[in-house]
Amino acid sequence: MKAVIFDLGNVLVNYDGVDTFTAVSQLASVSLDEIHGHYKQHEHAFGTGQLSGPAYYQKLDEAFGLSASYDRFAAAFCRNQQRNEAALAFACELQGHANVTVGIISNTNEVHAGWLHANLPELDQFNSVILSNEVGLLKPDPAIYELALNQLDISAEQALFVDDLAENVAGGTAVGLNGHLHKDWPRTRHFIENWLKS
């Protein structure tokens, strides 16, 4: 048995962080830099679930004043997230192999996680789905990779972790996982298929 563990953002789901903060900056009528700087202050708490979606919205409203309801804010915050149909189909194809199990590790937050649960029914097919805000851990904390391995019931050397950020791949390899830095799907698919044959 081997496991392939995927990140979501810019791997199985298309995501544009600049567009996210642009959308919020328009609601607040402040600059992109101001919104991004404010987010950085709360990123860890938001990403580990210590700060809920409504609580983050409230902090934004207190700091800048928002010309929108929470629902409009959440829609703007998620407006750039899109399913990568081919990537999701490939992950499901892997899950269908008798000797392969599939997991997910994603740094996210309650607002984006709500979109993911609503728009990615494929998540129900995978043997482990770890969203940072739901487990209180963020990549590259070693504990989040170890949690995935425990849920998949597999050893680190039997698992491949695929992420688009080098520091997250390094976090995985530090606990013994094989790693692949995702840049484009032709190369990533080729790498995964060859690794599964090795």
Topology of helices and strands:
Blueprint: E1 2-6, E2 13-14, H1 17-28, H2 32-47, H3 53-64, H4 70-77, E3 82-83, H5 85-95, E4 100-106, H6 110-119, E5 128-131, H7 132-135, H8 142-152, E6 159-163, H9 166-174, E7 178-181, H10 185-197
Summarize the structure.
The chain has about 200 residues and is an alpha/beta fold. It has helices at about 15-30, 30-45, 55-65, 70-75, 85-95, 110-120, 130-135, 140-150, 165-175, 185-195; strands at about 1-5, 15, 80-85, 100-105, 130, 160-165, 180.
List the defining traits of the structure above.
2 domains, DNA polymerase, domain 1, Rossmann fold, 54% helix, five-stranded parallel sheet
> H/E element string?
EEHHHHEHEHEHHEHEH
CATH topology category name of the largest domain: Rossmann fold
Question: Helical percent range?
Answer: 40-55%
**What's the CATH architecture name of the largest domain?**
3-Layer(aba) Sandwich
Report the β-strand fraction as a percent range. 5-15%
Walk across the major sheet and give the strand order: 5-4-1-6-7
Number of strands: 7
Described by the principal axes of the CA atoms, the overall outline is elongated
Q: Which CATH class of the largest domain is shown?
A: Alpha Beta
Query: Over the alpha carbons, how many angstroms does the gyration radius reach?
Result: 17 Å
Question: How can the largest sheet be summarized?
Answer: 5 strands, parallel
- Number of continuous helical runs: 10
Supply the CATH superfamily name of the largest domain.
HAD superfamily/HAD-like
Low-confidence stretches: none
